[in-house]
Known about the structure:
It is a single chain. By secondary structure, the chain is of the alpha+beta class. The protein is 23% helix and 38% strand. A hairpin with a 2-residue loop joins strand 20 (385-394) and strand 21. Helix 2 (42-58) packs antiparallel against helix 3, helix 2 (42-58) runs parallel beside helix 7 and helix 7 packs across helix 9 (335-352). The protein is elongated and about 95 Å long.
Amino acid sequence: MKGIMMKRKMLKLILMLFVTGAVVSFGQIRSFVPVVRPVYTEKTLSFFRSMSGSMKWLGYDELYMLFKSYESGGHGSGFVYVAADRTNYVITNYHVIAGAQTSTLEFEKEDGSKTVYEKCPIFAWNETLDLAIIAFPEGKRPFTSGLNISTRTLEDGMDVWTAGFPGLISDPVWQLGKGNITNSSARIAELITPEITTLIQHSAQVDAGNSGGPLLIADRTKTGGYDMIGINTWKVTGRQAANVSIPASVIRDFIEKTRTQGGSGTGGTRTALESRGRGFIMFFTSEDRKYGQMIDYISHDCVLEIGEKALTEVLTKAPSSVRDEIIGSFSGFSPFKGIRMAISYYLLENINRIPESRNSTLSAVDWEARENLPKVPVKFVFAGTEITSYWVYEYDKWRLVSFPLTDLPRETKKNEAGQSDIRIERPYNLSITAGSILPSDSVDAPTWIFGFNASINDFFVYALELGIRSQVMTDIYYDEATYYFFHMNFVFRFQVPVKTGFLSFIPYASVGAGGEFSFSSSVFNKPPIVGMAGLQLVLGESPSYILGCEYQMHLIKILDSNRDISQFYIYVAVGF
Length: 576
């Protein structure tokens, strides 16, 4: 009897130890989930700074905040994986480290202390699957075990947890969210082709910064107290608690394949480049070409070179449906996808204007030039004109670095009736002007004007004009003195930009309100409402070179404006 009692006590003690140990393990999941910070080049960071300024000026506050957040590098999440040979890795999303040279891993304990690993190389990546593997610095193996990649069958309604470091006022803060699987095998072609894999849709909390973190099922027998069933990748906007993860089976296959191959980025052959070049040209010759299909060809260098121009063109000129789609592509991703979408649209729109653009071919690959250049020249023939583009092997694919739009054939395209293709389209978005209001009956000296103009769309522009003029005046003692008047005018313009080839004509009508004052006298010309009619002759497109003339006349006096308006304004400008 005494022996039975002892056995029961021992069994009770073992169970208590097991449960206590499981609870401790259950609470340590944070130890296996780092903050992943991409490390960008100074050129990339400078690009983010320039983009945030452009987006703020154009009034796109959400895009401004996105680029502003990336000026300090941005961040995502990940989870620890330990291979059979004890090599330590962190698994994350490709879009978390896209465009980065290396990455920094930050592991935070519950007391707030951190262990940081810098200059962690990006070992492997797959853009289609949106997966990446980060290695620890050479010789570093801080973990003896990582999260288990589950093989269990998932069912709708299962309880799941999300773990990661979403941003809270831009700083990453630990978050463990809970929800349910709402669709264990979601087919969402817009994210990943269903033939490649189905996805896990769930309601557990996901916010910006969660990307790359694990989707978990509680299992006290596993490392960290959880079984990893997926990687949190997308948040569906416009839906409540609709979040999407890549399943564990895809992650496992990706790890096994890339470790067998020794990682990603191990070169690129001439045959592969020629194949990509033919695919690129086939895209432009296709009857059913869509710009979204082209982003796979856009390199990081191409983003840095023309990304700002392309996105500005889209936001100011593209149809609202295109603009909304491209803005939406920034949601839940690094900014690079949205910019690549904008570049794709920008290139396709320009190539669509080429006469007989579908009669285009791959001409030659200058493979030998790669020994002297970091990029390979690839020549195409568009409508009988040979142009040279440059390509680089990046993220396991040959991608476009530059495409010389200025070298494309520019003869005016004909429509079906054989008439010239004249379009209503503005050739620039912003312009800086300098000119003079000529002397007239109302002003006996020229007024030198400097102005800034910004387009709202093709037809509406607003402007600020600043100027200075001198005038000889006689005081009450009949003494003559020269006074300097400072001119300021706010203008709203309606225009009809008529574009044909590289030449544009822009007739316009404006209304403005402003006035003049002098620091050296009490004279103040109170602001009238001024009407303006003018014409611009524009050569080129971003940059554009502009010659303009304008007639200004007084419409309505405000209070007791001291003078009438009837004058001519001649100016030059540069548009961007």
